[in-house]
Amino acid sequence: MASPSSALHKSNGVQSGRIRVLKEGSRPFNQGGGPVVYWMFRDQRLKDNWALIHAVDQANKANVPVAVAFNLFDQFLGAKARQLGFMLRGLRQLHRDLQESLQIPIFLFQGEAAETIPNFLRECRASLLVTDFSPLREIRRCKEEICKRVSDSVSVHEVDAHNVVPIWVASEKLEYSARTIRGKINKLLPEYLIDFPPLQCPEREWPATNQFIDWDSLIADVLRKGAEVPEIEWCDPGENAAMEVLMGSKDGFLTKRLKSYSVDRNNPLKPRGLSGLSPYLHFGQISAQRCALEARSVQKLCPQAVDAFLEELIVRRELADNFCFYQPHYDSLQGAWEWARKTLMGHASDKREHIYTREQLEKAQTADLLWNASQLEMVHYGKMHGFMRMYWAKKILEWTNGPQEALEISIYLNDKYEIDGRDPNGYVGCMWSVCGVHDQGWQERPIFGKIRYMNHAGCKRKFDVDGYIAYVKRLVGETKKRKAEHLLAKTAKKLPS
């Protein structure tokens, strides 16, 4: 049974509660003489990374070398060029930074991690595997399989470097709502929302290898295979770009845009009112803890905005991880609360004014111009405004044959087009909209039952609907124009001079 380790050293600043021992090796790894391998997947960064700090610290204590392993899942959960291109470009920068600053090698594998990681551990005779934490089923199953396949002498440590308060420390159960988890998290922030210790240099170098990663070919390959959903241009990948979005002198969120956050973040016509950090948080190119520490340092300047930001960054994000960690059916009707399942099934056969297929919805072919605009924003821009995501998913419930189909379609579209898709926040966002997760029962009505209702008139009261439709139209037009120019330039390059 995995449990937080109280026996692990705390000298490097990694609290024992942040680490779970998934497998205890048959001999203390510091007596085995084998290296430490950090299997990185959710937290793809050099700085402010508790898992990397722990891996290097444990390697130095045992006087052994340390390496990073990364397994490239082929189109993981429907990821296309948009998501994989962003991720690989960030990893290319990370590879360079790790080599230049710490001389830590990265080994990149393709295939099933349940095979590639144990094989690598065997080849290099590793004594300790350190892994990132993820609440998603596929990753958890993979870890279980890895623990079975590695040698009895290998220990496996899981580090929650993604959440400010480790998920298993914040709560030992599925929480009902933000209200029930907020106090638990806030109580633990003095212990866990601390600054990061300096990342030590490995004392032992990894034996020289001819390890070469052809990033250009890898990126070209995923761009070709996933061309159906092309890359986005508004968001540069990598740790440096992430810090620029958070703290940049030109347009940084905390330095230039924070003041209007609490007012503008729910207005789809003001995308600059949002932090713009979600792609970086999703791929772990920036630490949520770093964002929180920097936000706290300017709290006196904009207390209301910082409070609203920390609520989203810590409480709401970690509530989503809590749901996916403790609810195995986090993406199906089975995962809804009983009252919600009952009311949804009771209204599943209610007459709908419109029924649309998945293809019609994907192509934004509905009678609702506002909904079409939100879908097009996601398809072409890679990011739908958070307020519109709620309206968008609730309309899918209204326009499909039942709640399970609505949920499947909303998750499929979200994961395919959102730059931060395949994320606990995305699953919980769809579950909140369709199944009332982390919400309460409202006045009963057709189709929705007691699930919170949203409509076009309500949107009109909150923001300029016609202005948003026109804004998306311009956005899509500009994106298509740039794409056409890019294709033209590419064709011209191929023509003989």
- The strand line-up of the biggest sheet is 1-2-7-6-3-4-5
Mean pLDDT: 94
Order of helices and strands: EEEHEHEHEHEHHHHHHHHHHHHHHHHH
Count of separate structural domains: 3
CATH homologous superfamily (4th level) name of the largest domain: HUPs
Judged by helices, strands and strand pairing, the structural class is: alpha/beta
Supply the number of helical segments. 21
Features:
single chain; alpha/beta; Rossmann fold; 3 domains; seven-stranded mixed sheet; 21 helices; 7 strands; globular
Please tell me about this protein's structure.
The protein is α/β, with parallel strands linked by helices. Helix 6 packs across helix 13 (303-326), helix 12 packs antiparallel against helix 13 (303-326) and helix 17 (386-399) packs antiparallel against helix 18 (403-417). It has a 7-stranded mixed beta sheet with strand order 1-2-7-6-3-4-5, with helices on both faces. The model is unreliable at 5-11 (pLDDT under 50). It contains 21 helices and 7 strands. The protein has 3 domains: 3-162, Rossmann fold, CATH 3.40.50; 168-195 and 238-326, Serine Threonine Protein Phosphatase 5, Tetratricopeptide repeat (Alpha Horseshoe), CATH 1.25.40; 333-479, DNA Cyclobutane Dipyrimidine Photolyase, subunit A, domain 3 (Orthogonal Bundle). Keywords: DNA damage, DNA repair, DNA-binding, FAD, Flavoprotein, Lyase.
